[in-house]
């Protein structure tokens, strides 16, 4: 993180107001940008949603939890959560 001297970028009145609260200290100012949800950037969220939908469809077609667990390399309990959750 790069530090910037507030006196170089802030108007004088604002700088004086800040100095009443944080005189000579370090102040962190968070970004305005909205934090993205987990997996939104990498595509993981979409991947797992599609995989889980596929597992639910196969279960409705009659595939057993044991077969689905083996096919997808997941634990029996994980498949149960997907199909019953």
How would you summarize the topology of this molecule?
Layout: H1 6-9, H2 12-21, H3 44-60, H4 65-72, H5 76-84
Round the mean pLDDT to the nearest integer and report it.
92
- State the helical fraction: 55-70%
What separation lies between the terminal Cα atoms?
A: 42 Å
Overall 3D geometry?
Answer: rod-shaped
Q: Which structural class matches the secondary elements?
A: mainly alpha
Number of strands: 0
Quaternary state reads single chain
Structural Rg: 26 Å
Helices and strands, in order, run as HHHHH
Low-confidence stretches: none
Characterize the largest beta sheet: strand count, sense, and whether it forms a barrel: none
Q: How would you describe the overall organization of this protein?
A:
The chain is mainly α and 85 residues long. Helix content is 56%, strand content 0%. It has 5 helices and no strands. The chain has helices at 6-9, 12-21, 44-60, 65-72, 76-84. Helix 4 (65-72) crosses helix 5 (76-84). It is rod-shaped. The relative contact order is 0.08. The mean pLDDT is 92.
